[in-house]
Amino acid sequence: MNLREVEQKNTLRFFLIGLLAFMIFPLGLELFRHDHALLILKIILFIFFVTLYFLNQRTQKTELITHILLLGLYSLLISGLYTTENSDIGSIWFLAIPLFSFLLLNQRQSLIYSALTLSTMYTFFVIYPESASFMEKFRLFIFGLFLTGALYALSRSRNKAWNETEDYMYNLEQKVEEALEQKLEQEKLLIHTSKLATIGEFLSSIVHQWKQPIATISAINVSLRIKEELCENTNTDKLKLNDELEEQTEFMSKTMDDFRSFFKAVDNETAFDLNAASKKLISLFDKSFKAQGININQHESDNIMVFGYSNMYKQALLNLITNAKDVINETKPANTDIDITYDKDDNFGIIRIQDHAGGVPQEILNKIFEKHFTTKKENGSGIGLAMTKEIIEDFCHGKVRVENKDEGAMFSIYIPLQQS
After folding, report:
1. pTM recorded for the entire structure
2. Between the CA of residue 160 and those of 154, 155, 394, what are the distances in Å?
3. Angle, CA 412 vertex, CA 411 and CA 414 arms, to 5°
4. CA gap 371, 242 in Å, rounded
5. Do 282 and 321 form a contact (C-beta atoms < 8 A)?
């Protein structure tokens, strides 16, 4: 329902409540009289208004209920004119019908109801000229025209306000949708930027992963050439050396597949082994970290099945491990190890990453997950930890916590367990 329909529905509800309140007292008086026909008529009308009230509460067809109400009031106008010696009762509905119609219907329909009401009143005066004096008829005629004109002007003004409000609300909704789309695009860009920021880590790791296989392949080629020159090559030697070459090239191919899968987009959420996913990521960077004097110690545990986007989880884990490595390289503590432990509670699988680099200053402990907040000065963008938090919350429906423990900071990632 739009703003106009809501206002019309509420207005109709208040009108019906007013009509019911207006009828209760006369209905009570009729109980002490002996005009049973009139009492039954008023009871029927009371039930009629109650029925309309509950229909208005339970349905969205406000306009239909309004038409039924106005036709009922018009019937009361007719009966009031022809069953009373004066036009007091008729005058009440003479005022109510135009008022209700202009407040609840469109201008064309309101004018039809107002014209019908006015013509009915004037027809009554023609048929029963003694029902009112000439001045009373004249005043009623002028008042009827004035009331219709005033209500018409009020209706135009209100419709204009409605249209302006609806236009404003529509424009506001458009702006909100555009802002949400921009926010979504910015988040996607930040995630992409965060991944690009780790390309250096990948390149460095590939160098360390391939250094030994390339050296081995080179040594095998030299060995083959020397043996060929000395005519010492036997079929057995060739097969053995070929097996070694195949083993080394397969290792290099697998390394590339592992790195390629990291950047592969994830289409849907899946259940995955928290331990296996973490170890697979760490294996890609272990040699690179060791080359910088940093050991990643993983404490074994039972397999923990969680549910979420596994690649996005790996991105978040890489951000935390890289953050720990940067802090270690900056502070150069005596203990350069990064300890990783796996755990779970009733609802979450938990992985904890702890360094021994002195911890996070207490005054910024609550700020480190804020976007663009960094302690790395010109070398930091403030993206990594903020994106880690958003990735875990939005893609894995989990949470990230940080606390100072022992000699350093400990980050904990909570991923919901797979539901059995």
Report:
1. 0.48
2. 10, 8, 43
3. 155
4. 52
5. yes
In this structure, which amino acid lies at residue 119?
S
Cα–Cα nearest to 80, from 42, 36, 110, 53: 42
Please classify residue 158 by burial: count the beta carbons closer than 10 Å to its beta carbon, then call 0-12 exposed, 13-18 middle and 19+ buried.
middle
CA 25 to the chain's CA centroid: 51
DSSP state for residue 419 in the 8-state scheme: P
Amino acid making up residue 208: H
Tokens of 235: 């079929």
Contact between residue 415 and residue 308 where contact means Cβ atoms under 8 Å apart: yes
**CATH 3.30.565.10 given to domain 267-420:** yes
Distance in angstroms between the alpha carbons of the first and the last residue of the chain: 41
Alpha helices in 31-87 (DSSP H): 36-58, 62-83
Domain range annotation of the chain: 3-171, 198-264, 267-420
Task: Give, for all 420 residues of the chain, the pLDDT tens digit.
Answer: 566 677 777 777 777 787 777 777 666 666 666 666 667 777 777 788 788 878 877 877 878 888 887 787 777 777 666 555 444 445 666 777 887 787 778 778 888 888 888 787 777 777 777 766 777 777 777 777 777 788 778 777 777 777 787 788 788 888 888 888 887 777 677 666 666 665 555 665 566 556 666 666 767 666 766 766 666 556 666 666 666 666 667 666 666 665 666 555 555 788 999 999 898 888 877 877 887 889 999 987 788 999 988 888 888 898 899 889 888 988 899 899 999 999 999 899 999 999 998 888 888 888 888 776 665 554 544 567 887 888 888 888 999 999 998 789 999 999 999 886
Kind of pairing between the strands at 338-344 and 305-308? unpaired
How far is it, in rounded angstroms, from Cα 190 to Cα 206? 24
Q: Which residues neighbour 277 within 8 Å (Cβ) at sequence distance 6 or greater?
A: 310, 313, 314
* 255 within 8 A of 209, measured Cβ to Cβ: yes
What Rg do the C-alpha atoms of the chain give, in angstroms? 41
DSSP 235-253: HHHHHHHHHHHHHHHHHHH
